[in-house]
Amino acid sequence: MTLAMLKAALLIGVGATVIMDLWGMLLRRLGIPTLNFAMVGRWAGHVMKGRVRHDAIAKAEPVANELALGWVIHYVIGVLFAVMLVGMVGEGWLSAPTLWPALVWGMATVVAPLCFMQPVMGAGLFASRTPTPGRNCLKSLVTHTVFGVGMFLSAGLIASG
What's the pLDDT tens digit per position in 26-84? Predict the structure, then answer.
C-alpha cells in the first residue's frame, strides 16, 4: 500500500466515522440509546492493567480519561477498517469509488462489536446478555451500514477533490 493510499484511507476512515457519529446523534435525539464511548475507554484501561473480560463493564472501576480514550479508540478503529477496505479494493477504487465494496465491508465490520467487543464487555455474543439482543444486533448492523456508506461518500469527496 502506497503512502497516498494510506493518506486516503485515513481521510476515509475519519470521514466515515464522523458520518457514523452523526447517525448516533440522530438516534439519541430520537430517544434510541447508543454506545457510550466511555465504556470502550474503561475497557481499554482495564486491558492495559491485564483484565480483558468483564461481566458488566459499566460496573467496573472507572479509569482516568475513559471517555477521551474511548473516542480515540473509536476513530482509530474507523481508520483501520478504512485501511483494510482500501487494501482490499486497491488504488483504482480510490479514483472511482463505487458503493458496493464500501457498503459490504461496512456491514461486515459489525462482526467486531457483536463477536468481540460486546462479549468482553459483558453484553454477550451477539448482545445475548442484553434485554433486547435482536434489536441491539439490528441497530449495530444499521450503524455499521451507515459507516460503509460513509466510507463511500468520503472516498467520493476525496476522488472529486
Answer: 999 999 999 999 999 999 999 999 999 999 999 999 999 999 999 999 999 999 999 99
Taking the domains of the chain in order of start, what are their residue ranges?
Answer: 3-160
Q: How confident is the model at residue 161 (pLDDT cuts 50, 70, 90)?
A: confident
Cell numbers given for 63: 479509569
Full-model pTM: 0.95
Q: How far is CA 33 from CA 2, 27, 71, 114, 135, in A?
A: 39, 7, 17, 16, 11
Going by C-alpha positions, the residue among 37, 72, 69, 154 that lies closest to residue 105 is 154
* 109-114 contacts, C-beta under 8 A, 24 or more apart: 109/81, 109/144, 109/147, 109/148, 110/140, 110/141, 110/143, 110/144, 112/77, 113/140, 113/144, 114/140
Using the Cα atoms of residue 25, residue 151, residue 75 and residue 7 in order, give the sign of their dihedral.
Answer: negative
As a whole number of angstroms, the distance between CA 73 and CA 83 comes to: 15
Please choose, from the candidates 23, 36, 30, 34, the residue with its C-alpha nearest in 3D space to the C-alpha of residue 148: 23
Cell numbers placing 18: 464522523
The total number of residues shown for the chain amounts to 161
